[in-house]
Design goal:
The complex is a heterotrimer of chains A (360), B (288) and C (296).
Chain A lengths: L3 E10 L2 E11 L4 E5 L6 H9 L6 E6 L2 E2 L5 H4 L1 E4 L11 H11 L4 H15 L14 H13 L5 E5 L7 H18 L2 E6 L2 H7 L2 E6 L2 E6 L1 H6 L4 H7 L5 E10 L2 E6 L2 E6 L6 E10 L4 E4 L7 E10 L4 E7 L2 E7 L10 E6 L5 E4 L9
Parallel strand pairs in A: 3-8, 3-9, 6-7, 7-8
Antiparallel strand pairs in A: 1-2, 1-4, 4-5, 9-10, 11-12, 11-14, 12-13, 14-20, 15-19, 16-17, 16-19, 17-18
Chain B lengths: L1 H35 L19 H6 L4 E3 L5 E3 L4 H32 L3 H13 L3 H13 L6 H25 L3 H9 L4 H12 L1 H16 L3 H6 L7 H6 L9 H21 L4 H5 L7
Antiparallel strand pairs in B: 1-2
Helix pairs in contact in B: 1-12, 3-6, 3-9, 4-6, 6-9, 7-8, 9-12
Chain C lengths: L6 H30 L20 H8 L1 H31 L7 H8 L7 H11 L5 H11 L12 H29 L3 H9 L4 H12 L1 H16 L3 H7 L10 H11 L3 H28 L3
Chain lengths: 360, 288, 296
């Protein structure tokens, strides 16, 4: 039985539907990362799980028990918000001790727990200082400590790293993952950054426009998205998307984009007539060679964007423009002729209407 | 060359104007300060610095004795100790009341929009209308309730009249506190009331101080209602000051001394909350 | 946060304020409305609720009362004069103080302190200033017109008495207008100012065409607030001139005060109060309509 289950939850604010039939499960001790662009409903979902908002329909279960109508503070969850509750008028110690004092815990026990968690998070040194003296990272960790000091059944984090600057964010994401492994608290972590989600989550749920489009392990989501929107969302740099046609016959899928034809091995049960499709491939899944080899496609370099470790080149093949990641080792200039190597296994095909995957 | 010259001229003009204005602002007070320390003989001279510096004017304020006025008329004024104490007591208590009630109301207004749109506007109304227009019924009302010349009547009246400022100033402060901070506490098991007192109140404390000081300033200086509602027992400082005009004879020295005494607290408060004066006076519509 | 407040919070947030305002202000206000339609004075020996209702006689009387009408017009003239003068002085001062200069902080701190003084004290200050042997005569005017200056009795002639009141008000409240304008002008976003500077606008043009229009709503707020306060004026007149000589510097507030307290003509005072209240509400409403809605 899953530890936490969200079953068919929908939420409407007036006329606006923010969440539509959201279902997911979280296993004990794992991190479920919820990834989605701003406005997709992540915060609302988390607040519903926390009990701060009631769902318009749907239920929430903890260990099989229906907790949908249980008030938030009895559920035993903790939440770290975007604007974390680090109160400016009291010290780090008092902030972390706050929830314990609310439960009327004896002073000695409070002290023990606060120190324990402070040591675990490496913030002993801020305990007797006031928040105005904290650095960004210390601030977040105090908020985290406060959330953890009550030994919550589930830890909810709503974009906790959003306000930190990029370098610290990377560090903190890894740090958080290690912390979670050490403590083992069941967590739900929301973020708009797909890569962050893939790093932190044991499993990842991609939420777009209030619906869960895919839920699974990070690698599965990355390599086998079931939906074009998920594929698009998770691809960084942005996905190459082409309109074309395809037909499947006896284990072979033939895709035609403009004058290019690609053949891919698929399951022999897959069979359909020629139809309009959308084909997608990541810039990082395409490679180039400078001289012609059999099976490569000939094209011309149109534009080069430098991305630090490598470059993103836009290459023109007749009527198609395809973006490709070029490693540092290959020197190219705009206007060069170049040859594209496409592994058909990296091409994914989607239905034009439903945007669902059709080449599996 | 000419351009540079104009620049210098404008600059000089600027400093001169500012200087003139500063003089304009300082001279009246300088005169009063000098009067306060001048002996009777020097009350009508034209120079500022007293030749015979004296504390007598201040001392005399606290005693109850007959004065010899300039025309040879005598007059007896009560010592200023009682009005001073009354003012302190009445102002402090009504300020505390106005701030606390204002705080609760502001909290409801900020988080839940409690009295609704009309309600809040109505509180502004209490400041728009001249106190003199309320004097009549208030006098009748208090007189019927046998509340004339009591501290209590002044305290509740002043709270009622200043609570509006409290509400608006505090609402601004409370609005600035992120709602998530309260939600977090409620998630951790705090009841709404507990959240109000253990989270919002402490964090809003600076706002309470500003509101309190501002309201104290306003109440300390109030004359009209005090005139109407007090007589002997609950007389406040402004009323006492008003007695030094005309009938009492021309006791310039003590009058000046009294003016100084009455100004100390307001000026101290004024400078303490300097940054918030504008916000307070304009009900939060203009940020200082 | 739930949309509806929990019960205890709702009570805390609405009951105390309601009780306070009702008990202390609203009930007396209701009483006042009733009183205005009576003919009653405590001297009549009966309680006010026993007094006969006489309808609109008090209101008619007020309309024909020269002293009331004069007080009203005088107070209006006073209000318009001080607000206008304070506005322009305050604006000019704010403009001058906008840029950085040596001693700016101290200068501002000094210019605003008259605001903090109790009006009674300001009245006392100017009462002392305008005495026949006070510095205005003794020091300044004497330098201009010699010994005759000592014989100017400011408070004994209606015109000069009125001027002293104006000066006291302007002295105390110009800093108020200054502070508001200065805050508002300073709050204009830097990039708008810089954009104009880049285009070559002089600092005056920037002030006139960029900053001023942007703070127009705040100016209106300031004018309305100051106007309302000026209209209420009581302290200066009471202390400095006692409404005199005679009743020539009596403001509306003073007249109502005297009618109620000195002459104990309660119901008449109530009627006048109501009329003033009605007038103020109408004027403010019209003002707001004109400046906020007509401008759309």
């Amino acid at each position: 039985m899953p530890f936490l289950e969200v079953r068919d939850v929908s939420k409407k604010f007036g006329e606006k539907t923010v969440l539509k039939n959201v279902s997911l499960t979280v296993n004990r001790g794992e991190v479920l990362a919820i990834a989605g662009p701003p406005g997709s409903g992540k915060t609302t979902l988390l607040k519903i799980v926390a009990g701060l908002i009631s769902p318009t329909s749907g239920r929430i279960y903890l260990n099989g028990i229906d907790i949908t109508d249980v008030p938030p503070h009895i559920r035993g969850f903790s939440m770290v918000f975007e604007n974390p509750p680090v109160y400016p008028d009291r010290s780090g110690y008092e902030n972390i001790a706050f929830p314990l004092k609310l439960k009327n815990m004896p002073e000695a026990e409070v002290r023990k727990r606060v120190y324990e968690i402070a040591d675990l998070l490496g913030i002993r040194h801020v305990l007797d200082r006031k928040p105005s003296t904290f650095s960004g990272g210390e601030y977040q960790r105090v908020a985290l400590a406060r959330a953890l000091v009550t030994n919550p059944a589930v830890l909810l984090l709503d974009e906790p790293l959003r306000n930190l600057d990029a370098k610290i964010r990377e560090y903190m994401a890894v740090w958080l993952k290690q912390l979670q492994l050490k403590i083992g608290v069941t967590s739900i972590y929301s973020t708009h950054d797909p890569l962050e989600a893939l790093t932190i989550g044991t499993r990842v749920a991609v939420i777009l426009s209030g619906e869960i489009k895919q839920l699974g392990e990070p690698l599965t989501i990355l390599n086998n998205p079931v939906n074009l929107d998920v594929d698009d969302y998770v691809s960084i740099p942005a996905l190459n998307i082409f309109k074309g046609t395809a037909k499947a016959f006896r284990g072979k899928l033939v895709i035609n984009i403009d004058k290019v034809s690609i053949e891919k091995n698929v399951s022999s049960e897959l069979q359909f007539e020629e139809r309009n499709v959308i084909a997608a491939i990541r810039p990082s899944d395409v490679s180039v060679v400078k001289t012609y080899q059999s099976g490569t496609l000939s094209g011309k370099v149109e534009l080069i964007q430098y991305l630090g470790a490598n470059a993103l080149a836009t290459i023109r093949l007749n009527d198609i423009a395809i973006r490709v990641i070029i490693p540092k080792t290959i020197q190219i200039n705009e206007g060069d002729s170049i040859y594209i190597v496409l592994d058909p296994r990296n091409v994914r095909v989607y239905d034009v209407q439903s945007k669902q995957r059709i080449d599996l | 060359m000419k351009f540079h010259g104009t620049r210098v001229l404008l600059s000089a003009l600027k400093y001169i104007t500012i200087g003139v204005f500063i003089l304009w602002v300082l001279i009246p007070v300088a005169w009063v300060v000098s009067l306060a320390f001048k002996p009777y003989a020097e009350w009508r001279v034209s120079y500022f610095v007293p030749k015979n510096f004296t504390w007598n004017n201040f001392i005399v304020l606290f005693k109850s004795e007959a004065f010899i006025g300039i025309m040879g008329a005598t007059a007896i004024v009560e010592p200023v100790t009682k009005p001073l104490i009354n003012s302190l007591v009445v102002t402090s208590l009504s300020t505390i009341m106005a701030v606390m009630i204002g705080f609760f109301t502001a909290y409801g207004a900020s988080r839940y929009n409690t009295p609704g749109p009309f309600g809040l506007f109505f509180t502004l109304l209490t400041r728009m209308l001249p106190p003199a227009t309320f004097v009549t019924p208030i006098m009748v009302y208090y007189s019927n309730l046998k509340l004339l010349d009591t501290h209590f009547s002044l305290i509740i009246l002043y709270s009622a009249v200043t609570v509006t400022y409290g509400i608006w100033i505090l609402k601004g402060f409370i609005d600035a506190i992120p709602i998530e901070w309260e939600e977090a506490a409620m998630l951790e098991g705090a009841t709404p009331i507990k959240t109000l007192f253990k989270v919002v109140l402490p964090i809003a404390r600076p706002g309470l101080v500003v509101a309190g000081l501002f309201i104290f300033l306003l109440t300390w200086t109030e004359l009209l209602f005090a005139l109407v509602l007090t007589n002997v027992y609950a007389v406040t400082l402004p009323v006492h000051i008003s007695k030094y005009v005309g009938a009492v004879g021309q006791l310039y020295g003590p009058q000046a001394a009294l003016a100084l005494i009455g100004s100390v607290i307001p000026i101290a408060i004024g400078y303490a909350i300097q940054k918030h004066l504008v916000t307070g006076f304009t009900f939060g519509m203009v940020r200082g | 946060m739930p949309e509806k407040p929990p019960r205890e919070i709702k009570y805390l947030a609405t009951l105390p304020v309601n009780i306070l305002l009702n008990a202390v202000l609203i009930i007396p206000f209701a009483i006042m409305i009733y009183l205005a339609f009576l003919k009653w004075s405590p001297a009549m020996g009966m309680n006010w609720w026993e007094a006969p209702i006489t309808g609109l006689t008090n209101f008619a009387r007020a309309l024909g009362d020269a002293r009331f009408i004069t007080a009203l017009s005088r107070t209006t003239i006073y209000t318009v004069s001080v607000v206008t003068i304070e506005f322009f002085l305050g604006l000019a001062l704010a403009y001058i103080m906008l840029g950085d200069f040596v001693g700016k902080k101290a200068a501002i701190a000094i210019t605003i302190y008259p605001l903090m003084l109790p009006p009674v004290v300001v009245a006392t200050i100017f009462y002392l200033m305008f005495q026949s042997y006070g510095p205005v005569n003794n020091l300044f005017l004497r330098a201009i017109i010699g010994e005759d200056a000592l014989r100017i009795y400011w408070f004994l002639k209606p015109d000069t008495a009125f001027i002293t009141l104006l000066i006291a008000d302007i002295w105390q409240w110009t800093p108020f207008m200054f502070l508001i304008m200065y805050s508002a002008l300073s709050a204009v976003p830097k990039r708008l100012v810089e954009a104009a500077e880049v285009l070559g606008a002089s600092s005056f043009t920037i002030f006139w065409k960029v900053r001023l229009p942007l703070i127009k709503p705040l100016i209106i707020v300031a004018l309305v607030l100051r106007g309302l306060e000026a209209f209420k004026m009581f302290d200066y007149a009471f202390i400095m001139t006692g409404g005199g000589p005679g009743t020539t510097t009596e403001t509306v507030s003073m007249y109502i005060y005297r009618t109620a307290i000195l002459y104990t003509d309660i119901s008449y005072a109530a009627a006048m109060s109501l009329m003033i209240l009605a007038m103020i509400i109408v004027v403010v409403r019209a003002f707001i309509w004109y400046f906020f809605e007509k401008g759309r």
